[in-house]
Design brief:
Blueprint (H helix, E strand, L loop, with lengths): L1 E7 L3 H6 L1 H13 L3 E6 L5 E6 L4 H10 L1 H4 L3 E7 L19
Antiparallel strand pairs: 1-3, 1-4, 2-3
Length: 99
């Protein structure tokens, strides 16, 4: 599983100009089952996306395709982790590490 932390590198007004395209991009990855949760950070200097079911190379490619990235208004920091414990709602993404 991945935590995709994005940090704005431009004023929020520039981010807002790309918001519709960013939301459409999010919706596509929710529809494919890759994105599990997302939202703005507080204070509003970026956002967080939880994603799973794909490789690191695939998630890095997805990040480069975000309209925010394409427009140069954010940077991504991607952290991979093994979700060994989850709520019942996220049981399908629970992982068992190799022994």
């Amino acid at each position: 599983m991945f935590v995709m932390e994005l940090t704005y590198t431009a004023p929020v007004e520039s981010v807002e100009e790309e918001m519709d395209a960013h939301i459409a991009w999010l919706d596509g990855h929710y529809a494919s089952g890759v994105f599990l949760a997302s939202g703005r950070k507080v204070p509003r200097d970026g956002g967080i996306i939880l994603a799973g079911g794909i490789t690191r190379a695939e998630i890095e490619k997805i990040a480069t395709e975000d309209p925010f990235t394409v427009a140069g208004v954010c940077e991504y920091r991607i952290t991979e982790f093994i979700a060994t414990k989850t709520s019942a709602d996220l049981a399908t993404v629970r992982e068992n590490p190799a022994a």
